[in-house]
Design a protein that fits this description.
heterodimer, A: about 375 residues, alpha/beta, abc type-2 transporter like fold, 2 domains, four-stranded mixed β-sheet, 14 helices, 4 strands, elongated, B: about 575 residues, Rossmann fold, Alpha-Beta Plaits, six-stranded mixed β-sheet, globular
């Protein structure tokens, strides 16, 4: 059969096959569209680093008008739900039990000292430091609350001797310090990683398992055609996942979006290519779905979760670990996303991130194409 | 020799995977316009050779010329002209029949006119037209293979590579596959058909016989079997003591091979040996028969070695007290699909009963219900006097089970495997030690007792698996395709053991899609589309259904006739 051939037919045929398979296979749709929803809801609501309604003890050794007024200050912020103790040992026990996250100790002479402009009143603050991030947040809020109370107290007393320095805190970009605001953009990176790497690695491994890859390799279709048709199909699916995640973030979690959507689309597309290519690289090693899933989790998903700056701030990691994070593409995407959501289209930050992502895309795509040969060896 | 040049020239090909050698110095030429059978047991190197020809693997030494181009450097030149059907069919199960064919047409960039014409022709040819909108995954095994063949034929290849196209396929579909391929060969296509079924080798124009990566023989099947034409006989056996008669015949110095074939014994004599008097073998007369491919294969493998046959050591002596299998209206539904439909049969003590049927016919489901692994939707099963519905555990204690895949622990030693399985079956103390010693001795495992089971040769693995299944002295032994894809010598050794177990009163139930295995059974049940469509002795079935007037009807003839009759009644078959 050397008669008329229709070039271009082959690629369209391959593409059509991929889409028909996606539509018929509930699991790929589940991974692309349902999993983002589940992940966002679970992690978005489950992991909260916010200080809100923190149970906090106030040890009042000698109840007075002043100590009562400080207690009310704590009670009236939405950050704390204070409990009153008369003995520091009781508060300590409550801390041990995990009933309270920390406590402040007002000594017996608190009322007297606070009324005396010449004598500083001492307040001891004790916080459960196991979760260091949380402890810092609690201390910060406790200090702020005490500070506020103290200046109000002085104004009320008409004291002139105001302290030389007053602390005023402002949280920029995320004034309410809502963790959803920076976790949700990070989650989008995770979802993109899952769709790209996991799904691609799985569907290619499935073709190996079912013997269709072998049949395909003997057909006139070339490896690049087979690969690119797969990339195109799952790219579209990935954009669907992106739309779901962004929509959910903005409308359900109320995360602000301050950047531009075209830039978001651009960055996400580049990152999607990176993770699709990583999936392909995995699939050149793993020829069973089980191994493919394990590798995808280990190589792409875990770093995206832990080392991308989504959960743990990269700047507060030890230097060597910070260096490690630079080899994971997710880190640049998370940084870009957080910028786009919380700050806006800030090119000095976005451009290096974007360039890094393009670099990763070229690298992994190159490796994937070089490694996927028309051979069973 | 004049004539067209060979389609494929294989020249001194060596292929290694790590330390093991898959193919060792194989040379052959594949003629166009003919079907070349690539014959050999599992692991012989058939798939590797096909993949080398398709250019999916590179030879470590030697070369292959495919349609005039080198298989490594010239892939692009012959790629459009070969049709390849991998072992796992290579169909997209989530695409319909039509979509699979259209994808294949797209891959070959056929224009609309050619495409329409080829699709119509192939759908008619394979009789798949009524199923064009059905998902490939929902086709029967036979139809899947036909569809895979159609996709391989779509672009009119000049070379067709078929990797075990007929494995597990019902005999009627198998005949259709042969019809299609025969027609293609008639149009000048070079066909390579790989198979473990030795009877298929006889249908080929030429054959290549592979064993352990080496080419043992090649040529025309008639010339291979020709040398045996006055050395192959059939003798009729008395109803009882067939296994003993077989063992006696196998030990006779003039006999190279003796196998049970239904109610008869098939004999191949040694070269130059005079035929023994039939009385010496406990029969009235020797009837000369046409030699088969398997006869020639076995005598080639055996050479002049004497059959290693002693009376197997007495092992499990089981009282023949009505221990038996009774299936009564066994039915099993999976959702709306009825996998097994009112199957009833019973097996007497010491009887070898075979459930014969294609993949997907409901054999395994029946089997699982009888093992107590699956609850019947309807009906009941009694095994060794115990009702499986009431006392599964008690029934299981009396059942030994061995599957095709030999469920052994590959990274445990032979001793550990025996130890483990004796523990699983609740043996302890002196009985455990006694049974392990018995297994080691009577299955000749002593030499490999500390070797890892996974690295053993297939024959040892098979013996070990059988030993493990017999440790607890079961009264019933279930065998799931125990010898499909193994070489004929191993199959003989295996069935000889099974025969002597049956003589000791163990009831044996075998499932198989493999006609040759069925010949070893005392009685057969033919399973098709969830129903038991016939039962009887192999000879009885052959006579009754194999077609009147046929000289030597085979079980396959009988099977095809039964399936046709069943389909006609059910009206399921498209005209």
């Amino acid at each position: 059969m050397t008669g008329a051939r229709l070039p271009g037919r082959r690629f369209r045929g391959l593409l059509r096959k991929e889409f028909v398979q996606i539509v018929r296979d509930p699991s790929s749709i589940a991974i692309a569209l349902v999993m983002p929803i589940v992940l966002l809801l679970l992690i978005g609501y489950g992991i909260s680093l916010d200080a809100r309604d923190v149970r906090f003890g106030l040890v009042d050794e000698n109840p007075s008008v002043e100590s009562a007024s400080l207690y009310h200050s704590f009670a009236s912020t939405r950050y704390f739900r204070p409990t009153r103790f008369v003995d520091a040992r009781q508060a300590e026990a409550a801390l041990m039990r995990g009933d309270i996250a920390g406590f402040a100790v007002l000594r017996g002479d608190f009322a007297r000292k606070v009324a005396d402009p010449l004598q500083p009143a001492e307040i001891g603050i004790f916080v459960n430091g196991v979760d260091a991030n949380n402890a810092r947040v609690v201390i910060g809020y406790a200090l702020g609350t005490i500070e506020n109370w103290a200046s109000a107290y002085r104004r009320h007393r008409g004291q002139k001797g105001a302290p030389a320095v007053t602390l005023e805190q402002r949280y920029w970009f995320n004034p309410e310090i809502r963790s959803a605001n920076f976790i949700v953009p990070g989650l989008i990176a995770m979802v993109m990683t899952m769709i790209g790497a996991l799904l691609t690695a799985l569907v290619v491994a499935r073709e190996w398992e079912r013997g269709t890859m072998e049949a395909m390799m003997v057909s006139p279709a070339s490896m690049p055609e087979i690969i690119i048709s797969k990339l195109c199909a799952y790219f579209v699916l990935g954009l669907g996942g992106l739309a779901v995640s962004v929509g959910l973030g903005i409308f359900v979690f109320g995360v602000p979006f301050r950047g531009s959507f075209p830039v978001l689309l651009l960055m996400s597309s580049v990152f999607l290519v990176v993770s699709l290519a990583m999936g392909l690289v995995i699939s050149t090693v793993a020829r069973s779905q089980f191994v493919a899933a394990q590798l995808a989790f280990l190589i792409t998903f875990m770093p995206a979760l832990i080392l991308s700056g989504m959960m743990f701030d990269i700047a507060s990691m030890p230097g060597w670990l910070q260096a490690v994070t630079t080899v994971f593409a997710a880190r640049y995407f998370v940084s870009g996303l957080q910028t786009l959501f919380l700050a806006g289209t800030v090119w000095p930050i976005l451009l290096p991130d974007l360039l890094a992502l393009v670099g990763f895309a070229v690298l992994f795509l190159g490796v994937a194409i070089a490694r996927t040969r028309r051979s069973l060896e | 020799m004049a004539g067209p040049p060979p389609a494929v020239i294989i020249d001194g090909v060596v292929k290694r995977f790590g330390a093991s050698t898959a193919l060792q110095d194989v040379s052959a030429a594949i003629a166009p316009g003919a079907i070349t059978g690539l014959v050999g047991p599992d692991g012989a190197g058939k798939t590797t050779l096909l993949r080398l020809i398709a250019g999916l693997l590179e030879p470590d030494a030697g070369s292959i010329t495919v349609l005039g181009s080198d298989s490594v450097t010239g892939v692009a030149r012959f790629q459009r002209d070969i049709g390849y059907m991998p072992q796992r069919s290579g169909l997209y199960e989530d695409l319909t029949v039509g979509e699979n064919l259209r994808l294949c047409a797209d891959l070959h960039e056929l224009d609309d006119e050619t495409r329409g014409e080829r699709l119509a022709a192939l759908l008619g040819f394979t009789r798949l037209s009524p199923f064009v909108n059905r998902l490939a995954g929902q086709l029967s095994g036979g139809m899947k293979q036909k569809l895979a063949l159609a996709t391989a034929l779509l672009a009119r290849p000049r070379l067709l590579l078929l990797d075990e196209p007929s494995a597990g396929v019902d005999p009627a579909s198998r005949r259709e596959l042969w019809r299609i391929v025969r027609e293609m060969a008639g149009e000048g296509v070079a066909v390579i058909w790989s198979t473990t079924y030795l009877d298929e080798a006889e249908r080929c124009d030429r054959f290549l016989l592979l064993q352990n990566g080496r080419l043992l023989a090649s040529g025309a099947p008639e010339s291979f079997t020709g040398g045996l034409s006055d050395r192959t006989f059939l003798l009729d056996l008395p109803d009882s003591g067939r296994h003993r008669a077989q063992r006696r015949a196998a030990r006779h110095p003039a006999v190279a091979d003796a196998t049970i074939q239904g109610g008869s014994l098939r004999l191949v004599l040694r070269q130059g040996a005079a035929a023994p008097p039939p009385q010496a073998l406990g029969a009235a007369a020797l009837r000369p028969v046409r030699p088969r491919f398997e006869d020639a294969f076995v005598s080639l493998l055996q050479g002049d070695a004497t059959a290693p046959d002693e009376e197997p050591a007495p092992g499990t002596v089981v009282p023949a007290d009505g221990a038996t299998i009774v299936a009564q209206d066994l039915t099993c539904d999976f959702g709306r699909f009825r996998a097994v439909d009112h199957v009833s049969f019973s097996v007497a003590p010491g009887e070898i009963f075979g459930l014969l049927g294609p993949n997907g016919a409901g054999k395994s489901t029946t089997f699982r219900m009888l093992c107590g692994l699956l609850e019947p939707t309807e009906g009941s099963a009694r095994v060794a006097g115990v009702d499986l519905g009431r006392a599964r555990a008690a029934a299981r204690e009396r059942i030994g089970y061995m599957s095709q895949r030999f469920s052994l622990y590959a990274n445990l030693s032979v001793r550990d495997n025996l130890d483990f399985f004796s523990g699983v079956y609740g043996l302890s103390g002196s009985r455990r030690a006694r049974r392990i010693a018995w297994a080691t001795e009577s299955f000749e495992l002593g030499a490999v007792i500390d070797a890892e089971a996974g690295g053993l040769p297939l024959g040892f693995k098979q013996r070990l698996a059988l030993a493990c299944a017999l440790l607890h002295e079961p009264r019933v032994l279930f065998l799931d395709e125990p010898t499909s894809g193994v070489d004929p010598l191993m199959r003989r050794a295996f069935w000889q053991r099974i025969g002597s177990l049956a003589d000791q009163g163990v009831t044996i139930l075998v499932t198989s899609h493999f006609m040759d295995e069925a010949e070893y059974c005392d009685r057969l049940g033919i399973v098709y589309a969830g129903k038991l469509i016939a039962t009887g002795r192999p000879d009885e079935l052959k006579r009754r259904f194999g077609g009147p007037g046929r000289a030597e009807p085979t079980l396959e003839d009988a099977f095809v006739a039964l399936i046709d009759a069943h389909d006609d009644r059910a009206g399921a078959r498209p005209s």
